[in-house]
Design a protein that fits this description.
Layout lengths: L2 H16 L7 E2 L4 E2 L1 E4 L5 E4 L6 E2 L9 H16 L17 H11 L7
Antiparallel strand pairs: 1-2, 3-4, 4-5
Helix pairs in contact: 1-2, 1-3
C-alpha cells in the first residue's frame, strides 16, 4: 500500500471517531472533519477541524494529549506503515456505547493493530 492509500485508510479512522460519540476531530460550527493529506511531493499535512489550517509539523497538532498522541501514531502509519496501537482504543474517551462503534470501524480499516 502506498502513502496515499494509507492516508485514505487513516482518514476513515478519523471519520469513525468524528462520526459518533463526542465527535473528536469534528467541528460542528464549521461542519468540518479533520483529515490528513499527502501533497504532490509526498509531504504529510493534518487539516485541523477547528481552524481549517494545514499543519505540516505533527508536533504542532492542536487538541488534548490523547487526540494528539493518536494523530501522531496515525501520521506514523501514513508515513511508514506502522500500525496504530490498539491501546488508543481501549479507553472510553467519554464516548460510552459509541466507543464500540469507533473500535469496530477503526479495526475494519486495517490501520489499527489487532488487540
Amino acid at each position: 500500500m502506498d502513502k496515499q492509500a494509507r492516508c485514505e485508510a487513516a482518514n476513515r479512522v478519523i471519520d469513525c471517531i468524528a462520526g459518533c460519540g463526542r465527535r473528536f476531530f469534528y467541528n460542528d460550527a464549521y461542519d468540518l472533519t479533520s483529515r490528513f493529506e499527502v501533497d504532490i511531493f509526498g509531504q504529510l499535512f493534518f487539516i485541523d477541524c477547528a481552524t481549517g489550517r494545514r499543519i505540516h509539523n505533527m508536533y504542532d497538532l492542536p487538541g488534548g494529549e490523547k487526540s494528539r498522541a493518536l494523530a501522531w501514531d496515525i501520521s506514523d502509519y501514513i508515513n511508514d506503515g506502522t500500525l496504530v496501537p490498539f491501546s488508543h482504543f481501549e479507553q472510553e474517551w467519554g464516548y460510552g456505547q459509541a466507543m464500540q462503534t469507533v473500535r469496530e470501524g477503526a479495526m475494519q480499516t486495517g490501520v489499527v493493530a489487532k488487540k
